[in-house]
Amino acid sequence: MILGGRDTDLVLLDENGIRCDGRKIDEPRKIMIKAGVLKNADGSAYIEFGDNKIVVGVFGPRDVHPKHLANTDTGILRCRYHMSPFSVEERKKPAPSRREIEISKVIKEALKPAVMLEQFPRTVVDIFIEVLQADGGSRCAALAAASVALADAGIPMRDMVSACAAGKVADTIVLDVNNEEDQAGQADMPVGYMPNMEKITLIQLDGVLTPEEYKKCVETAIGGCKLVYEIQKKALTDKYFSNGGNN
Ligand code: CDP
Q1: Which residue in 96, 118, 136, 164 has a CA-CA distance of 20 to 30 Å to 30?
Q2: 179: CA distance to ligand 1 center in Å?
Q3: What CA–CA distance (Å, rounded) separates 204 from 165?
C-alpha cells in the first residue's frame, strides 16, 4: 500500500495495483463525447472525461475583428479556455487566470498543426471552451472536445487531435491522471497527438521523471490518445451517420 504525499490517508496504489478511484494503472476514466450540442455555434462538442464536464463552441471561418489581426496569407485560430466559477471546489473567479491564459494558448498551439488554416486566409476560427466541472486533466479533455467541435464545424483538418495524460503515481507510470493523483502524485504529462499522422502536438510535464520513465510516460499517454480517438470518431459518426445523415 502506498500513501499519497499531502493527504496521508489517500491510498494512491494498493498492493493489487489498483488506484485511488478503483482503476488499473493502464485504465482511462470513462469518456463520453457528443458532437453538435449547441444550436448557435458552427460546430460544437460536449465531453465527459471522468468527472470533467466541458462544452466547446466553434465559430468560423469568419471575418477577423479587430481587422489588423487578419493575415492575408492564412487564417488564424483563437482559443479561450474558461472555467466556470462552480467548476472547482473553491469558487473560481470569473476573470481569466494565468492558468486559463496558458491553457488557452497550449490548446491553440496543439490544434494548429491539424487545422488547414492556409485554406481560408484573412479569416479567424474561434474556439470557446467552457469548463463546467474540472477534475484533473481538463486541458486534455478540452483539447479532444475542441478537435471534435472543429470537425463538426466542417473546418478542413489534416487529422483529429486526440489527447490524454499519463503520469507517475507511487513510483508507477499510470494512464490518465485524476485530480487526486495530480495533487498527490509525482508527475503529470498531458499529451496531444494526431493519431493518423503519428505526431505529438502537445506535451507538457509537471514533475520529475528519469529518461526511461519519460519514454514510458509518452508511450502510455499516446496509447490513451488512441483510445480517445476512437471515441472522437464515434461522436462524429453518431451525429452524421446514425440517422441517415439527417441529424
Ligand atoms: O485540468 P488540468 O490537469 O489540465 O490542469 P491543472 O492545472 O493540472 O489542474 C488540475 C486540476 O486542478 C484541475 O483539473 C482542477 O480539478 C483543479 N483546479 C482547481 O481545483 N482550482 C483551480 N483554480 C484550478 C484547477
Answers
A1: 96
A2: 7
A3: 9
Query: How would residue 8 be classed by pLDDT, with cut points 50, 70 and 90?
Result: low
Question: How far apart are the C-alpha atoms of 138 and 185, rounded to whole Å?
Answer: 17
Q: Which three cell numbers stand for residue 1?
A: 500500500
Tens digits of residue pLDDT in 55-65:
999 999 999 99
Q: Give the Å distance between the CA of 106 and the centre of ligand 1.
A: 15
Per residue in 228-247, pLDDT tens? 999 999 999 999 998 655 55
Q: Ligand 1 centroid to 132 CA: how many Å?
A: 12
> Is the shortest distance between the CB of 137 and ligand 1 below 6 Å?
yes
Task: Tell me if the pTM is above 0.90.
Answer: yes
> Residue 101, class by beta-carbon neighbours within 10 Å (0-12 exposed, 13-18 middle, 19+ buried)?
exposed
Query: Residue 245: which residues within 8 A CB-CB, separation 6 or more?
Result: none
Q: Where are the alpha helices (DSSP H) in 133-197?
A: 138-152, 179-184
For ligand 1, the distance from its centroid to the CA atom of residue 138, given in whole angstroms, is 7
Q: In angstroms, rounded to a whole number, what is the distance separating the alpha carbons of residues 133 and 48? A: 9
Q: Is 88 in the pocket of ligand 1 (CB under 6 A)?
A: yes
Would you place residue 10 in the very low, low, confident or very high pLDDT band (cuts 50, 70, 90)? confident
**Does ligand 1 lie within 6 Å of residue 138's CB atom?**
yes
Non-local CB neighbours of 196 within 8 Å, separated by 6+ positions: 159, 160
Q: Which CATH architecture has domain 30-241?
A: 2-Layer Sandwich (3.30)
Is residue 186 within 6 Å of ligand 1 at its C-beta? no
